[in-house]
Every structure is written in structure tokens, then in C-alpha cells.
Amino acid sequence: MEKNIMTKLPNCPKCNSEYTYEDGNLFVCPECAYEWSMEATEDDSDDSLIVKDANGTLLADGDTITVIKDLKIKGSSSVVKIGTKVKNIRLVEGDHNIDCRIDGIGAMKLKSEFVKKI
């Protein structure tokens, strides 16, 4: 019989996924694509940015979201229509905490309260 000598890896500090793996000197979460160093402890998790969508689902960099409300663009007559799909978002600090690029409109910032994760 073969003994299973697997070491218990830490859960992802961002999404709490148990499916983390080691890549060199980093831990990687395949669910939210978050990477952190082995030296990082749970004390560092206070520094991480926590952003939730309109339904309370945790968002992460690289997620795909959908706009749940028509959004007027300041200084323009354009509108981001309900149901607009936005790929590869980036989370940032501030009131408008999602940085993204919308096809046909360009780079813009959105509030997480007006989007839902796909």
C-alpha cells in the first residue's frame, strides 16, 4: 500500500477555496487566480481588497461580469446598457472599484453595486 504524504495547503485568502496549489514559491488559487507568497500569513489578508457584486458574490481580478442597470456615462450621451458583458475586470480602491474595458465604449470604472458576476 502506498502512503498519501500530501501536505495540507492553505485555503485562498481571497475566496477561501480549498483547491490551491504551489507554483515555485507562490500559492495559486485556480478559482479566483489569486497568487500569494508562502511568507504571507493570515495577518496580510486584512490588506486584501474585498469587493462584492450586487448579489453579494465575491469578485476577483480577471472575472467576467454583467451590468444589471442602464448606466449613463458622464460627459457623454452614451449609455452602458443592461446585460452588457464585461470581461477581465480589475479591482481598485475607491468609490468606483472596478476598472475595465467595455467593447465599443473603452476604458471605464464601474461601481460593484451595479454588476453581477457570471
Report on this structure.
This protein is mainly β. It has no helices and 13 strands. It has two domains: 35 residues, N-terminal domain of TfIIb (Single Sheet), CATH 2.20.25; 54 residues, Roll (SH3 type barrels), CATH 2.30.30. The strands form five sheets. It has a three-stranded antiparallel beta sheet with strand order 1-2-3, with no helix packed on it. The N and C termini lie far apart (44 Å). It is elongated, with a radius of gyration of 18 Å. 15% of the residues are buried.
Instruction: Please state the structural category.
Output: mainly beta
The proportion of residues in beta strands is 25-35%
Q: Compute the number of structural domains.
A: 2
Radius of gyration: 18 Å
Question: Biggest β-sheet: count, sense, barrel?
Answer: 3 strands, antiparallel
CATH superfamily membership of the largest domain: SH3 Domains
Order of helices and strands: EEEEEEEEEEEEE
Number of H/I helices: 0
Mean pLDDT: 85
How many β strands by DSSP? 13
Helix content: under 10%
Main sheet: strand order: 1-2-3
CATH architecture of the largest domain: Roll
- CATH fold field value of the largest domain: SH3 type barrels
Query: What is the CATH domain class of the largest domain?
Result: Mainly Beta
| Regions with little confidence, pLDDT below 50 for 5+ residues | 41-46
Shape: elongated
Kindly report how far apart the N and C termini lie: 44 Å
